[in-house]
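Record 1 of the preview.
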Amino acid sequence: MKTKSIILTLATGLLLANCIEDIEKQAQPYFLRAQQSYASQQYALAKLQIDSIKQLYPKAFDTRTQAQALLIDVELAEARAGKAYTDSLLTAAQAKAEPLAKVLYLDKDARYQDIGTYYASRHRTEKNVGKSYLRPQTDERGTFTITSFYRGRAITPQTLRFAAPDGSYVDLQSTAEPYVMSDATGYTERTDFAATPDVAHFVAQHTTVKVTLIGEKSKAQIPFAKAEAQALAQVAEFAATLQSVATLQSQQEELARRIAFYEQRQAQRHF
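->
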């Protein structure tokens, strides 16, 4: 009886070993394709093959171990390729930003400001005392806003409207209550509006645009000549470029962290 039990155990073990070997053989083609995809820099395809091994052959332990080691190589190569591409995009974005920055005025006092604001030199405060005007601006991170300076009766602006002769228009909403500045001849309401590139695109599509500040009970028109439209376009383009730079820098940092992580995993594998 004992002999039969031993024989049955050996037979079962042999059957199980043959079964595992068969599973490993079935999983190997996926691993080989993953290796080939990795060698040809088709990283997404390589990861797909590795995922297939995990899902279809969970008991192919040897092949799964090989695939997991290969996955580290794939992830590292993909991160390095991504960083190289991101580096090139960042260099191009920074090169685009440089000439745009030179045509704008940077309002920043290093004694108390960490982030400065760019706008057209024509919109510097000392050049517009007593005037109603718009000042498109962007901070150094690419946050695009438009500030209105309105000289006249109080209207407490809530909406800034850019309207074309055909009746179409774009509205911007104020981000806070206006700040009131006074002098010997009267006072000025200063109001900040959140802006997007859409407003610059809208203005660029029309020869003339009327700009109106709209309050709860009254409204007022703000002068907006061709030079104002040009300043708006310059600031909008610069803001978009600065946003691209910030986004690419963030991606660059994330990829650098991924590279460091997978390099460490790779080094641990060799011990």
